[in-house]
Amino acid sequence: MSENSVLSADALRRWLTVYLATVIGEPSESIDTRVALSTYDLDSIDAVTMAIELEKKFTLKVHPDLFLLGHSSVEDVVAELCTHAVAGR
């Protein structure tokens, strides 16, 4: 992440929610950010694509496995990415 950009948990949460809703073909309001992403039947291709798009949008290094861990929710992903972004400064 560049020094001039600030990772906002809200912006990251919003992006992940909208992206996930688009992938599964549901309105973003239907996404519960606290439930496991596995609930939404993401496959490895979805995870790789989401990681690439997230890296482009937020200039972060994201491993696709982050989305495939059975217990990971949008909130878990946001917390993990924000923690690593702060640690990397």
TrEMBL record:
<dbReference type="InterPro" id="IPR009081">
    <property type="entry name" value="PP-bd_ACP"/>
</dbReference>
<dbReference type="Pfam" id="PF00550">
    <property type="entry name" value="PP-binding"/>
</dbReference>
<protein>
    <submittedName>
        <fullName>Phosphopantetheine-binding protein</fullName>
    </submittedName>
</protein>
<feature type="domain" description="Carrier">
    <location>
        <begin position="7"/>
        <end position="85"/>
    </location>
</feature>
<dbReference type="InterPro" id="IPR036736">
    <property type="entry name" value="ACP-like_sf"/>
</dbReference>
